[in-house]
Predict the structure.
Amino acid sequence: MAVPPADERARREARRARPATTETPGTGTLRRAVAGSLATALVALALVVTTPTGAAVAAEEGLAVSAVSRYRLDAGADVVRATMTLDLRNTSRDTAADGGVYAYFFDAYSVPVPAGATNVRATSGGRDLAVSTAGTDDPSTQTVRIAFPDLRYDRTRRIVLGFDVPGAPPRSQNSTRVGPGYATFVAYGPGDEGHNRVEVVAPSAMSFSSTVDDFDTARSGGTSTYTATENTFDGGLWAAVSLRDAAQVTERTVEVGDLSLTLSAFPDDEQWSTFVADRVEKGLPVLERLVDDPWPGGLQRIREDASPSLRGYDGWFDPTGDEIVVGEQLDDDLIFHELTHAWVSGDTLEQRWLYEGLAQAVAERAVERTGGTPRQHDDVSRSDRDARPLNGWTGDAGSRSADVDAYAYPASYHVMHTLLADTSDARFAAAVGAAVRGERAYDPPGLVTPSGGRTSWQDWLDLVEDRAGAKNAASVMSTWVLTKEQRALLAPRERERTAYRALDRADGDWVPPEGLRDAMTVWDFERARDVRAAVAPLGASVTAVQRAASRTGLAVPAGVRDSYEQAALDDDYRDLATSLPATARAIEDVGAARDTAARERNALAATGARLLGVQERADRARAALADGSVDRASALARESTERAGWALPLGVGLLLLALVVLVGVAAVVVAAVRHRPAAARHAGAGPDRTPDHAMDPSPGG
């Protein structure tokens, strides 16, 4: 919402008498009589002061003002009825000078009112006063000049000024809005401190928000009266107010994948719903790619409302209400920025500059990828009045905007733009996604430590260098983000990161042990140095394991790699000094046993290998290695290899034995055959048998 220019907001007019021998009678002049009669003059008593917003207003010396300003929303007519009751008293004494008398009087009073105000009328003592209106440089403000008879010293005048405030159409230059179920306007009261009251009257069903927190609330019969009495600047009380009936909306549903969102717009602003629906449908898939993370949920509604602007914001993401609240502007950058807060917020990142700057960097890239034109950002400098290290920027969008916000928002964007503008979408998403998920820069991408917590500025500096490849990131953050004490950490950080990278190269494609990664993550560089001293000698053993696996084609047991990468204690490092060399030997032994067992053999050697269980032991060795039982794997592998050396002798021996057995059997058979006839003859002369010749007949018989 625009803030009315100062000199238009609370102008009070005065006239000053000036000594003269000839005066033309007229309004605002005092006459000086000859020989001591009253002199005439016109006195201007304007004193320029400054409001908290920095705008100048006009206040008057010599004029006391008491005021009651009442703004009543006529919801049925969509108009605000305003009445100002002004009590003016001239406190400027007449003075004598140069032989005459200067008399000071006021004959007019000017009040700023919303532009487009109608039915402007002023009365005093039951009589109408002349009023005139004039435009200002601010399209939301005009002035009403009230003329009245001369108000002399210590005289008073009560003036009742009335006017109606209609609303301008959405997205008009005039920021006043009055429509079905909503109203946004300036409530101004011109009274002096302690003599000023501003009242806003509206149906109790409507929510109330304001740029001023000091309104008290009284409810009666379905109507609420909001009253403020403390001036906001030297010339009176100025407050922008917003009234909203949440039941009077036009709703529309937009669906993107599994996401279903309700768009709640002012009843007379269909263009807003159409615009937002289009941007959500086109932009959400792009945002998911840029953040490298699926839509996290936690959003049900996008609502059109003027209340964010009254706290100094274009809009906000409200996770407690599961809604985004934005004004009427058709701004794709704003929609994407607030949608990004579903991922990038105080729930996932620690510092405000971090999640606001990152959300804007994501939004800007989403605008470009959907064919839009990114918004132009205000230039900022570290020499600006409100400049400070961004790590000192606190608060959130639910709080009142502070002066520092005007610096911190564009400065946060500047930091992120400088770090990420030249990165590809893939590297951009790798860094942003890691930050959102809470990954540590020193862990493999995709690994999330359950106790990791939110991403801090230290985490982000490490991530943006390692995942996004940002150059000069430490220098950029030193200039814009860090305090003096935090900048002192950068030199030891760089020394340890250089040493860490050297160690990481030495252990091949394995990541360094957890103890070192944890120390680097939390920037405990003294501990990191101590852990590195214990871990560095293990590099040769790690590469020996990796080379053995490469030569043999065997996988390194998962438990062995885990024992190295998850090592976090001194005992772990000492154990690794023994277990890693043993693993390298085991891999070599198992590879040799496997190759020996698979070697092509002649029949004799194959028979010997089979009988000796060479292949069976080689297989058992590989299984033991896969299970991480490296000592058993080595023993089985060596046994297999040793037995393989006896395979041929055993085969030959078996052959010779077979030959010996065969020869022996043959000899037995031959011997048996040779002795068979004699045995048979002896068998034919037995006592029960008659000799053959006894059967022959004798010659003489």
Observations:
- The two ends are 169 Å apart (CA to CA).
